[in-house]
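step=encode ok
step=design start
structure_in=
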């Protein structure tokens, strides 16, 4: 499996074709889940909003609601509504469509705020990326447990600083957080939109893991159904996503078959780059207890 090929495919799906003044078209990579990966759809919507700006303004927030699943066999259309355009502010709504059906709506805000007060949460103490194992090492021996992870497109390099769900489950442990170093497998173009889009793409990975690891469960080992309903990203500082960033996530609550995942992206100096909140429907179906033998 070629990491370079996967990286090239990520760049291709982020390179939208502009059909007219308000419509962009995005493709899918060669390997996909049954439905369009939400991180891909969000990243493409973010690119469409950013490319529609009359002048460069840094992003401040992205809020996405998923309405229907996309068909990976067909292109996606991104319809951009220009809601506001000022020197330091801009707002866009992006409707993601396929065959006339609305799949996703994204609201994107842009703001050049300038200097002001600064503070942030402290980055967790974790091992350096060079000391964390590559994801392939953590998947070895679990090919039949998490086959979708093994075969998935992997343009982003992951380095877990804790045991991932499938290994933690084998050890009988639980964990209320997940912390993963991430970066693209190769150098990105010197374009802040592409770097931020790669982060948005990656923000849809591992963020719901803490919902299940808090209960000692794992994808593959246990019967779990999960689907994202909404996802938000707040951009605090510019990011270079071809350099290591730490994605630290936790789950503050799960109730009514819904779970919330929250997280921060940190650079290697410990500065908060972005904040993420995702809600998903998460259902767990315990294995039926073996019926006792009748006497």
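sequence_out=
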């Amino acid at each position: 499996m070629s990491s370079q090929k996967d990286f090239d495919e990520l760049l291709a799906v982020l390179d939208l074709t502009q059909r007219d003044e308000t419509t962009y078209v995005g493709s899918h990579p060669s390997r996909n889940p049954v439905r369009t990966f939400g991180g891909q759809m969000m990243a493409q919507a973010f690119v469409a909003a950013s490319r529609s700006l009359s002048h460069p303004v840094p992003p401040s927030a992205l809020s996405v609601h998923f309405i229907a699943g996309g068909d990976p066999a067909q292109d996606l259309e991104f319809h951009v509504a220009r809601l506001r355009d000022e020197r330091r502010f801009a707002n866009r709504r992006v409707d993601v469509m396929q065959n006339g059906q609305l799949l996703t709506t994204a609201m994107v805000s842009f703001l050049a705020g300038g200097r002001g007060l600064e503070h942030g949460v402290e980055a967790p103490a974790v091992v350096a990326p060079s000391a964390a194992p590559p994801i392939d090492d953590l998947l070895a021996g679990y090919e039949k447990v998490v086959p979708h992870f093994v075969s998935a497109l992997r343009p982003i390099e992951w380095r877990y600083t804790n045991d991932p769900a499938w290994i933690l489950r084998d050890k009988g442990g639980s964990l209320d957080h997940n912390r993963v170093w991430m970066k693209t497998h190769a150098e990105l173009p010197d374009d802040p939109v592409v770097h931020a889009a790669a982060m948005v793409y990656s923000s849809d990975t591992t963020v719901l893991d803490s919902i299940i690891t808090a209960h000692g469960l794992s994808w593959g080992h246990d019967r779990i159904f999960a689907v994202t309903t909404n996802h938000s990203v707040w951009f605090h500082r510019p990011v270079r996503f071809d350099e290591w960033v730490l994605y630290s996530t936790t789950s503050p609550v799960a109730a009514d078959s819904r779970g919330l995942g929250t997280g921060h992206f940190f650079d290697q100096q410990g500065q908060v780059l972005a904040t993420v909140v995702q809600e998903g429907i998460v259902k767990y179906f315990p294995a039926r207890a073996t019926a006792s033998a009748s006497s």
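step=design ok
step=annotate ok -> The two ends are 55 Å apart (CA to CA).
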